[in-house]
Hints:
The protein is of the alpha+beta class. It has helices at residues 3-23, 27-33, 53-63, and strands spanning 38-41, 74-85, 91-102, 110-124, 127-140. The chain has a five-stranded mixed sheet with strand order 1-5-4-3-2. It is globular and about 50 Å long. The mean pLDDT is 94.
Amino acid sequence: MTPNEQAVRSIKALMYVYAECVDLARFDELGELFSHGVLTSTSAADPDDGMSGDDVAAFYRATNKVHADGTLRTRHVASNVIVEVADDGQTAIARSYFAVHQATEALALQPIVAGRYHDDFALVDGQWRFACRLVIVEQIGDMREHLTFDLSLGDVRYADHVEPG
Length: 165
């Protein structure tokens, strides 16, 4: 396997770990994924002002509904992943689609939100890490069993959901 192929494989794995951390409500691990990077969204009040590390964990903990089984009862599915590794092998970009499905006692299995990810990655101490993930929300369904706020309103602000530390 070439270094470029190994980089693409590692980056895709990182993208899938993100989905797993969210679905399984492993918010501290999710925060660690952004310890060297920023997470932001087109739904944010200012998409250029993202969250990192512990702030990511705190925001997800405060805004995602954890159900009796300890999960979000969701499945984040990433597809159409396109990764481009820079010539120097130290950075990369990726684009992908996502669809989130959910089923709860009150909600039959259905897609609840879909969109795209635009990602920047950096090789840090030999490991690929998120440098920036932009979540582009494009379609919103029934989110009442998933989030504590109405995503369709946009203008999401970290401080509105997380108590100052």
